[in-house]
């Protein structure tokens, strides 16, 4: 890669419970065709190193960090906005994920997002269907058995209709029922029944949707397919008959260590049995006859999602638009607050070190800050923040959802008491966004365009904590209530570390 063409490269990485995967591609500047440049996969088995209390053992942590250092070296030079790293069930299980993520981001050199299970499912479906040929509309069931979770999605034309993420994976199931490595029919049945009991509440939802074909993806299902091919039990895809033969063959072994199958790698063998049990149960419960195999999965979905963020199909904006529509927000007030906040943002973004992603967060906050009014006007900011933090929001990571919820919660009244402790990263920028947001809300309180003044906001370069808001004197004389609200904001902004100065002279000396 040369500095001249780095802007055409994109990279994604998914940190799974069993394996870490890195994908680097180049996108043609003309036509947009995607070419794979590099793929790296390392079997880290992070899920196997996490205790029932969510603690990560030292050996696994060290193995993970060493892997990420290698990935970081390969990613060096690619623009940050063209790289996206996501963590799945393994990171979701950690009791204190921030501790590991801090070390992991240092090793990798890039930001890591933790994504929710249903968001993982959406991205898997996007990855599988986005690269499969589709001459006519096809409804597909997509199944991904990972190390710590199993994702199941039904949809067509790139849009999921039903998706779930179940907390059963090849690593977790093997750990729970075959911890000592011994294989028996009784243990097999216990493991299968455990999954089927939990899957029961979803079973009929899936069976009641007609799909044209089922597709399996990722390492576990691809390993099962390879074994079935090598044994001659199938010529294409995985059949129910092949699954039954594989089950009976595995039960002939007395221990996992003794398992020897053509097509099964040494790295996959320790967790293979858990994956087979899960897939066998799904074949039975969903009455599957045959399953196709996809070589595309989560990382390709993350890639398409990342590229989509620079087009008109950014899934995050689509999510915000859907929330706005669902809760019938006042679009005129949204535009009013958005216009004022964007104006203030533009004026201090350079001095405040604010970037494009910070503006995106502010824009989304403006668009959904009043959705809580659908519940109650009383403390509506709390209802809005709750809905944002607890809704399924396709395209958003856990961290971004939490940041957006904190920004919305802080829009008015008293600031949250735990604000400093709850957002250790991006704290300085978040506080500046809160200041801009609160000032915009106050200035737009009358919900009337005619009441908005020409604004000038400055961030003191010599005293980075001083915000100077210049307001026309004529406006101040006519808007005593708004001026009183702005003066009341001084004490709240002090809690964020800012000194708010209200001025009438736009040529004021900011050094005094």
Notes on the protein architecture:
There is one protein chain. The protein folds into three domains: 6-115, 2-Layer Sandwich (Nucleotidyltransferase, domain 5); 118-297, Exopolyphosphatase. Domain 2 (Nucleotidyltransferase, domain 5), CATH 3.30.420; 314-452, Hypothetical protein af1432 (Orthogonal Bundle), CATH 1.10.3210. The protein has 512 residues and is an alpha/beta fold. Helices cover 48% and strands 16% of the residues. The strands form three sheets. The protein has a six-stranded mixed sheet with strand order 8-7-6-9-11-10, sandwiched between helices. Mean pLDDT is 91; it is low at 506-512. The two termini are 50 Å apart. The chain contains 19 helices and 14 strands.
């Amino acid at each position: 890669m040369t500095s001249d063409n780095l802007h055409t490269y994109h990279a994604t990485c998914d940190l799974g419970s069993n394996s870490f995967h890195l994908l680097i591609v180049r996108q043609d500047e003309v036509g947009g065709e995607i070419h794979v440049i590099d793929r790296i996969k390392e079997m880290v088995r992070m899920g196997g190193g996490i205790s029932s209390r969510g603690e990560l053992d030292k050996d696994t942590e060290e193995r993970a960090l060493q892997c990420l250092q290698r990935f970081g070296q390969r990613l060096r030079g690619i623009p940050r906005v063209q790289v996206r790293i996501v963590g799945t069930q393994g990171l979701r299980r950690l009791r204190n994920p921030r501790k590991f993520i801090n070390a992991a981001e240092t090793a990798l050199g890039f930001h890591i997002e933790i994504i929710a299970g249903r968001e993982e499912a959406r991205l898997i479906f996007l990855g599988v269907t986005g690269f499969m040929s589709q001459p006519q509309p096809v409804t597909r069931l997509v199944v991904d058995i990972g190390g710590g979770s199993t994702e199941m999605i039904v949809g067509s034309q790139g849009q999921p209709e039903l998706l779930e993420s179940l907390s059963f994976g090849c690593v977790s199931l093997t750990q729970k029922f075959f911890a000592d490595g011994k294989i028996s029919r009784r243990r097999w049945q216990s493991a299968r029944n455990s999954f089927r009991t939990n899957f029961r509440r979803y079973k009929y939802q899936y069976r009641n949707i007609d799909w044209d074909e089922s597709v399996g993806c990722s390492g576990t299902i691809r390993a099962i397919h390879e074994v079935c091919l090598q044994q001659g039990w199938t010529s294409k895809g995985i059949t129910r008959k092949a699954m039954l033969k594989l089950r009976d063959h595995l039960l002939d072994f007395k221990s996992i260590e003794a398992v020897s199958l053509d097509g099964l790698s040494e790295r996959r063998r320790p967790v293979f049995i858990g994956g087979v049990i899960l897939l066998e149960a799904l074949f039975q419960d969903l009455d599957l006859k045959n399953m196709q195999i996809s070589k595309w999965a989560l990382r390709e979905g993350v890639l398409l999602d990342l590229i989509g963020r620079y087009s008109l199909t950014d899934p995050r904006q689509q999510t915000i638009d859907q929330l706005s529509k669902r809760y019938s927000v006042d679009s005129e007030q949204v535009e009013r607050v958005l216009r004022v906040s964007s104006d203030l943002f533009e004026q201090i973004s350079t001095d405040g070190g604010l970037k494009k992603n910070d503006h995106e967060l502010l824009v989304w906050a403006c668009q959904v800050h009043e959705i809580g009014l659908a519940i109650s006007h009383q403390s509506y900011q709390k209802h809005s923040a709750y809905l944002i933090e607890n809704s399924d929001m396709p395209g958003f990571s856990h961290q971004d959802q939490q940041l957006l919820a904190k920004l919305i919660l802080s829009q008015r009244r008293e600031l949250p008491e735990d604000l400093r402790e709850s957002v250790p990263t991006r704290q300085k920028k978040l506080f500046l966004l809160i200041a801009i947001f609160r000032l915009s809300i106050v200035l737009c309180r009358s919900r009337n365009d005619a009441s908005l003044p020409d604004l000038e906001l400055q961030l003191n370069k010599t005293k980075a904590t001083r915000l100077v808001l210049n307001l026309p004197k004529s406006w101040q004389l006519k808007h005593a209530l708004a001026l009183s609200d702005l003066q009341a904001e001084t004490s709240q902004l002090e809690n964020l570390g800012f000194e708010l100065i209200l001025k009438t002279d736009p040529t004021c000396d900011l050094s005094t």
